[in-house]
Design brief:
91 residues; Rossmann fold; two-stranded parallel sheet
């Protein structure tokens, strides 16, 4: 499973659908998150909850066994194209 920053933020901030996201992550045989998505989540978490929030993010990533993987330029361009097609307000 590829984990998006929005799922992590929902889990950490108790947003709607949190149970569904946490269950999906827990039941997945393997979870991955790009380092770009991790950075995005880290910035949002620390802006809202400070360094303590960042530590909670790190702990969540570790406990959920989410593997952080680097994103290539090609992957970033593919993600951008997907956002243009499927992103909020684009479909």
């Amino acid at each position: 499973m590829i984990v998006d920053s929005s799922a992590i933020l929902a889990a950490l901030f108790g947003e709607p659908d949190v149970e569904r996201f946490v269950r999906a992550i827990a039941e997945a045989s393997r979870c991955r998150m790009s380092t770009a998505n991790f950075l995005e989540a880290a910035i949002v978490v620390e802006a809202r909850a400070g360094i303590a929030g960042g530590l909670e993010l790190d702990l969540f990533i570790e406990r959920a066994r989410i593997e952080l993987v680097p994103a290539s330029v090609e992957q970033a361009q593919a993600a951008r194209s997907a956002w243009r097609r499927f992103g909020k307000g684009n479909h």
